[in-house]
Amino acid sequence: MSVFDVSGVDFTYSGAHRQTLTRVNAAIGAGNFCAIIGPNGSGKTTLLRLLLGALRPDAGTVHFAGKPVHTWPRRSFARRVGVVTQVEEMPFPLTVRELVSMGRYPHLGAWRRPARADEMAIETAIERCGMSEFAGRPIDRLSGGERQRARIARALAQEPETLVLDEPTASLDIAHEMTIFELLGAFSRHDGTTVVVVTHHLNLAARYADTLLMLDRGTVIADGPPAEVLTREIIERTYHWPVRVHPHPGPGPDGGAPQVVPVARPHSPPADTRDRP
Ligand code: ADP
Cis before residue 251, ω within 30 degrees of 0? Predict the structure, then answer.
């Protein structure tokens, strides 16, 4: 059984002049690492919000673990699905440990105080995300990459079976991007966590994800292993830019993964020098 099952989904934002998603089908299996890719405005975040039950489809269905996602009681859903959104306003500067502790709320309820198991989950999440040395630091005194790891640690403290992340590496440098994709890869491979991530990083998605779901103007135009989705033909048709696709040279376990290199357009001479005799 799939963790997420999307079938024939249409969706239009109220007031929008065109449909945002059209007849979208997707199945994300347990333990799978799925990257949702596609150009700006292709509907990636909208699809994520439908998966989370934050939006309801106009037609079609979205199931989580066999039941329509909107029928899940929010607290049970939150115990099973950890979410890292794109942006988040922090009204006051919590420390990293306080932020990560918030991930336990779905397990606590109004009457239960944090127990040993909660403390363990919090410390494990902090450690796995490499945040131990920052645990007592207010989050407004962290770099972008550290703050993002703290937010992932909060989702991890929930001990979710599924993690859903919207562009977790936006505006991070290569070391921080790699750290986050390595973490997500480890959650999926070692812990069996289902990982769904929206990303613009085609090359990182190709190296770490098991499947890529490519959207273009609200429809799924390719869905499968990276080598089937990241072909020159599909990318050029979708992104309207010439590319070459080369196998990753390694070293590493991901050697051979398709890597996309956008190429410069052939140089054309300035208009006033053209067609001169
Ligand atoms: P992506 O994540 O791929 O960049 P989005 O899902 O954010 O794409 O947006 C898909 C389309 O829906 C875009 O054309 C965007 O302008 C539109 N859109 C997004 N959010 C809203 C909204 N709240 N109301 C109306 N239109 C929206």
Answer: yes
Q: Whose CA is nearest to atom 12 of ligand 1?
A: 20
Which residue reads 């606590």 in tokens? 108
Q: Which residues are registered as beta bridge partners of 14? A: none
Beta strands in 54-161 (DSSP E): 59-64, 67-68, 81-84
Which residue ranges have their beta carbon within 6 Å of ligand 1?
13, 16, 20, 38, 40-46
Distance between CA atoms of residues 61 and 82, nearest Å: 21
Q: What is the mean pLDDT of each run of 10 residues along the chain (277 residues)?
A: 95 95 98 97 97 97 97 93 86 90 81 80 94 95 91 94 94 90 94 96 97 98 98 98 96 95 81 58
CA 42 / ligand 1 centre spacing (Å): 8
What is the pTM (predicted TM-score) of this model? 0.93
Residue of minimum CA distance from atom 25 in ligand 1 = 13
Closest CA to 229 of 255, 247, 202, 256: 202
Helix (H), strand (E) at residue 26: strand 21-29
